[in-house]
What we know:
- This protein is α+β, with helices and mostly antiparallel strands.
- The protein folds into 3 domains: 18-180, Jelly Rolls, CATH 2.60.120; 187-237; 242-297, Homeodomain-like (Arc Repressor Mutant, subunit A, Orthogonal Bundle).
- The chain has 11 helices and 10 strands.
- It has a 6-stranded antiparallel β-sheet, covered by helices on one side. Strands 3-8-5-6 form a 4-stranded antiparallel β-sheet, with no helix packed on it.
- α4 crosses α5.
- 26% of the residues are buried.
Amino acid sequence: MKDKKGIDYVIDGFIGQRMVYLPGIVKKKILKDPRVYDLYITHIGIFPKALGHLRNRPIGSSQYILIYCVDGEGWVEIKGQRKILRANQLIIIPRKTACKYGAGTERPWTNYWLHYTGKHAGLYSPPLGQVIEIPPTNNSRIEERLVLFEEMLQNLEDYFQPEKVVYANICLKQFLSSVKYLEVYRSVKTHVENDVLKKVIGYMKNNLSNNIRMADLATICNCSSSNIYKLFKQNLDSAPQDFFIHLKMERARKYLMQTNLKVKEIAARLGYDDPYYFSRIFRKHIGLSPANYRKEEK
């Protein structure tokens, strides 16, 4: 079927698509498996840039239909009410509900989709029939969710291996939970990032007499230098090395206010062999020379 723009409308058959329909014999095995019979996938796929994608279900489906737009735009019509679906938006169509859905014509969606059912499928489902926003943020974990989808799809492509079918359906519980409990899902990354920052800053404070390299920081928190840099810029608006110098200057201020140490002694305690260089750095950060700062503060 073609429209006025000459677009062919089809159910599937898009370049680069991947799709798995589980055979009936596999579904029968699933229904006997207590680990997954309460929630399991019947169909799953990815339609990239699916121009002309159109599906009409006058009596709905016997499964829940999850449609996750990761790029472009499409639409979903449920009981005659049309909803636009854009990048990082998701919708779950209830079972046995009349619906239509399709790709936009200007920027057709890349659509991650799956059908699921099971004895307790409704308990695991996020809110039905409404567009769910999954906006990108510093802690969104969107890529991790897409990797999880890939794990489900890739393992179900080997549906003749029972352990892969079980694993894929266990992943479905986590996938749906990552949407239903979105803030909880995102909070994990926030805690991990905070732990990394605490560990790195703690290491810096304990090593103010040394010169620290990015490689040292990467080693102590077991992550890449680029990730550390990104965390500091996002959370502290500072590069790690600049923040380390800030800590040194704050310690220098304490020495100047609370001790009678000479400037060259303070410089040495903070890892500066050249007291004149230390003084220039101090003036740049504090606005006064070490000697003048001591006069004003004491």
